[in-house]
Sequence to fold (469 residues):
Amino acid sequence: MTIKELRAKFITGEYTPVDALNDTLSNIKENEDIHAFLELFSAALDQAKAATERFKTEGEKAPLLCGIPLAIKNNILIQGERTTAASKILENYHATYDATIIKKLREAGAVLVGGTNLDEFAMGSSTENSAFGPTKNPLDSSRVPGGSSGGSAAAVAMGAVPAAIGTDTGGSIRQPASFCGLVGFKPTYGAVSRFGLIAMGSSFDQAGPLTNSVADAELLHNTMAGTDAMDSTTITPDTYPEVIIKDKYRIGIPRDFLKEGIDADVMELFEKNIQDLIEAGHEVVNIELPLFAKGLAAYYISMPAEVSSNLARYDGIRFGTKVEGDDLLGDYLNSRAEGLGAEVKRRILLGTYVLSAGYYDAYYGKSEALRDMMREELKDTFKDVDLVMTPTTPTPAFKFGSQEDLLAMYVQDIFTVPVNLTGVPAISLPAGMVQRDGKDLPVGVQYIAPHAGDARLFDFGKKIYDSKL
Ligand code: GLN
Fold:
């Protein structure tokens, strides 16, 4: 069900928020082996009861998310709840305050059901890096749900909740949405406050929704968005250029970027989606974005640099479980050696390396310069087209353990990371099914809008996707 459908039932009273929560909890129990959730929040029942009462007195005047059960990626702080970011080092960490987005979701009446599984500190594309075991794809349990917001995607795909919140540093909302047949939205950098998100790459991270419809994604995004005194990178409404909404859009395809590495049937489906757009009256043109192809290289320099600095706080003294050593340095070394997983350590090492005095200019400095050039390239592109279209991922969901070659896993992000490097918004929409081993698996198409053009993506998405639901 979509949020909108659920709300309609709450208003008539045929189904209450308490009923919805009970159904959510039974679904989670039935699907325990999917392992979508790390935590269930006991406060949810009181929230659902309060929401049920509100509908009795307020009816359709109740706030827009009143009684809607939501799953929250477990790297977003919820006061009093265990928030581990799927890391052993935070195994016993209970959040002492609400993230700004959580405050806003609460004010809109949402019922916060539980914390979902992820790759440790959001580093990964499969949830295989979770310290507490992977999440399975509900559509084929031999395959990954994507990552790092794999638990959030699985929670929606298995029908436990109508929507979930994830975070996206390089594709972690859009890629799992693609693998699980959902809508996934990554906002313009700064549209949504990062206060209370466990940081991965601070100049990349944004929180956003995974949903069954574009309208639901819009509703959740608009609830969470806004300037926040606690996050100086949030943008104010008056710095937004006016978003031009059109009846028909002009869409650019960066053809050179799509030449290799994409599964043949994924590409076929992509072409079919282009044909559908043309039939619907949109205009599709080929464009060139030569710098986009360098995005992956820049991402795997700038992102680890930020990771190494953000994760310095987990030393067993300031944050994280302490493992005693012989002296202070020993405490640090033991705590981090035992508390952090292999992928996280790899990125910290890579990050400290590219930031070190002798290599800063050669790697980090160049990568940041490339980000500026990519922003300029995109700005120019958007003088000509309204949207840019790519596949979300080169393949459908892959099998557990199949990406042992690290680079193969990193290539998953090839189409999604340029979006975070440049800060623009993008949405992944279900584009159809491909077959693997006799099973139908979903794949997504990504649409990218200019900076602060979030509203255009919602308008376009509702036209081409929601209208067919
Ligand atoms: N898969 C990407 C990575 O491993 C993206 C992660 C994310 O967006 N949090 O870094």
Q: What stands out?
A: The pocket of glutamine is lined by residues 122-125, 148, 168-172, 200, 413 (CB under 6 Å). The chain has a mean pLDDT of 97. The first strand starts at residue 37 and ends at 40. Residues 3-224 form a domain with the Amidase signature (AS) enzymes fold (CATH 3.90.1300.10).
